[in-house]
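Notebook entry, structure prediction.
Reason for the run: the old model in the group folder had no record of what sequence produced it. Starting over properly, with the input documented here first.
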Amino acid sequence: DRVGSFDELALIKKKVSVNLVQRGELKSRIDKVNSALDKNRGNVQFMPYSVKNTAESYKAFIAKYPTNPFVKEAAARMQDLQFKPYLEAGSADAFSEFIKKYPKNLHIKEARGLLSDTLFASYKKQGTSGALEEFLAAYPESPHAAEAKVLLVDYQYNPYKAMDTVEGYAEFLEKYPENPNADKARGKMEALKYKPYSEINTADSFSEFLEKYPDSPHAAQAREKLAELQFSSYREKDSIEGYQEFLSRYPESSFTEEAQASIDRLQFAPYREMNKVEAYEEFIVTFPSNSYVEEAGYLIEDLEYEPYLAKSTPGALAEFIENF
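New structure, fully documented this time:
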């Protein structure tokens, strides 16, 4: 039992090492053979279930052979087959039923996405604001919620836009004051209020409009049209008395300056026609605030200079300078 020398001990260790390697290689070969046998045995067990190729057959296989190497493949096929009829049905009810029945199925995420798509499509198809409001109330976390909100803006506005009436826009603004189309609707409503009065296009119509809608965005435009119509008849008559009456009746009109300028023109006209120094002097005294007073002064100077200029002699010019 004893080893006689170190050389003998080294030889024994070498033999033992070789034996261990050979045993390891043998075990590896045996493991490979066993694995192949297990796989072949598993395939034999799996084949009749795979031939049936139904969710029930794969379920039965998994229950009977839980350690079979084909269990994973069987589970995947089973879940595909469970999902297939619901996918083919393609309805919201079908996807809802699938999710409820198979919450752990590998297709559950896809089913939820398809359910969301299908539900949104059904509400969108109705084409009404009520349907989209119902969708957002029922599915606020839906991935289609943002799109639904965008569509809702137009779905709320479009029926009233199609009506295109004062009453319709008023109802829209009362019902949906926060809708982004509110300003547009308000503008259309105000334009419709103004339209019939502007089409009549008389002083009375614009006066009535301003009395009824004093704060309308079209009020300034109506006032300008009213002033123009009020002034037009006086402009046609073109008389001092008429313009004076206009200024008395409409002192705040935008045409007051034109009316006053017309009075000044008519007051000056007969004196200009006479074109005499005495006439211009009388004009200046009679109408000292008339805008033509300065012109009358220049005309007087011209008339006074004309006779001296006509003589064109040094004596005549000296006399002019002395007199004026």
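Summary: The chain has 16 helices and no strands.
The old model has been moved to the deprecated folder.
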